[in-house]
Amino acid sequence: MSYIKGLFCKECGREYPAEALNVCDFCFGPLEVSYDYDAISKVISRERIAQGPRSLWRYQDLLPADAANAVDINAGFTPLIKANNLAKHLGLDELYIKNDSVNPSFSFKDRVVAIASTKAVEFGFDTLACASTGNLAGSVAAHAARAGMRAFVFIPADLERGKVVGAAIYGPTLIAVDGSYDDVNRLCSELSDNYNWAFVNINMRPYYAEGSKTLGYEVAEQLGWRAPDNCIVPGASGSLFTKIWKGLNEFSSMGLIDGVNTHMFLGQAQGCSPIVTAFDAHDFAIRPVKPNTIAKSLAIGNPADGYYALKVIEESKGSAYAVPEEDVVQGIKDLAEMEGIFTEPAGGVVIATLKHLARTGQIKPGETTVAFITGNGYKTQEVVEDVAKPILIKPTFAAFEAAVSVRP
Length: 408
Ligand SMILES: *Cc1c(COP(=O)(O)O)cnc(C)c1O
Ligand SMILES: [Zn+2]
Known about the structure:
By secondary structure, the chain is an alpha/beta fold. The protein has two domains: 4-70 and 109-208, 3-Layer(aba) Sandwich (Rossmann fold), CATH 3.40.50.1100; 80-106 and 212-386, Rossmann fold, CATH 3.40.50.1100. Helix content is 38%, strand content 16%. The chain is built from 15 helices and 13 strands. The chain has helices spanning 37-43, 46-50, 84-90, 109-122, 135-147, 161-168, 181-194, 205-210, 213-222, 239-253, 274-280, 306-316, 325-339, 345-359, 397-403; strands at 4-9, 15-16, 31-35, 80-82, 94-99, 127-131, 150-156, 173-177, 198-199, 230-234, 263-269, 319-323, 368-373. The protein has a six-stranded mixed sheet with strand order 4-5-13-10-11-12, sandwiched between helices. Strand 7 (150-156), helix 6 (161-168) and strand 8 form a beta-alpha-beta unit. The longest helix is centred in the middle third of the chain and has 15 residues, at 239-253. The radius of gyration is 21 Å and the shape is globular. The chain starts with a strand and ends in a 5-residue tail after the last helix. The model has no long low-confidence stretch (mean pLDDT 97). The protein binds pyridoxal-5'-phosphate and zinc ion. Zinc ion binds next to loops. Residues 9, 11-12, 14, 24, 26-27, 29 line the site of zinc ion.
């Protein structure tokens, strides 16, 4: 069961019932889920979590939807890998990769959609929908298939082939919009006022966003019930970034881990970095930009949670970095060549940010650092097409030796 109490406005505090709502009627602030933490603290324990399923539903007590009726394709409980080669290369001691690229639809979006789709079924919706930068499309389509729901999925028309196919395969109605993600989002907001659909990241957004907390929970559990010193997270709307922080702090306030002294570092690609620009200007007002970046999954020019992400950076004494576009692919290659993990441009942004933070001494040897890898490289092969140059030979011993010199 879930300990959800309702929704509340993050700006004016006004309370709302747990319905498909995302904006405060009075001040237009975003709504967030409220819980009965007193009741949760009486039941939750490390042992109870450890006995749970090997998916994000092991954190049921702190989630707003009921695991008993979950739309479940087994999201979450992904590997936390100690990255010794990359650590050595960067002069660090204790570096981990949280490899969320191996979720069922190959991005961390399965976490948010698991919660939103379960809640949508609970509310009686028969149609799941979303405005996507790419990965959300695949996850919504997959969860809708699993739930036997209709799916309408909206994407910008210039998306990578692997993301289009990776969504279309599940049989949704897939709409490619001639415009940016921000155009797609505007259209979907208008549609959600007129169609009785569960738009996972619009009218279902308060529930959807809570799914990202599980990344914070999992990392703390996998580190042996402690918070890391540093988290490096890619930012699009900024939601994931704020929710990892929330997850760590909830674990602490429930007594599952000690105090949280984590520094939160946000990475964006230079071609779409409105949150970083505001951070650099010491300004909490985000100026929307028109994205032009290789990191399409992060290409949100007007980030809904940008302000809250800046607040988390301030509170956690972190920082933000805009990765030069040409460094994104190098980040992808570094992770693949040093740790055997093939990520998409969002992961390249994280590795490039990690390199920058290590080089500038913002993260130090002796600290525990976690880099969050949120999407899979097999969906965006075109960005690293240049590596695909196999040595072509005839099937003979002599041909091999003529083509390749290997010392015996
Ligand atoms: C959506 C997405 C993000 C960022 O999500 P926000 O919560 O909008 O900041 C990061 N990485 C990948 C691969 C994504 O698809
Ligand atoms: Zn309000």
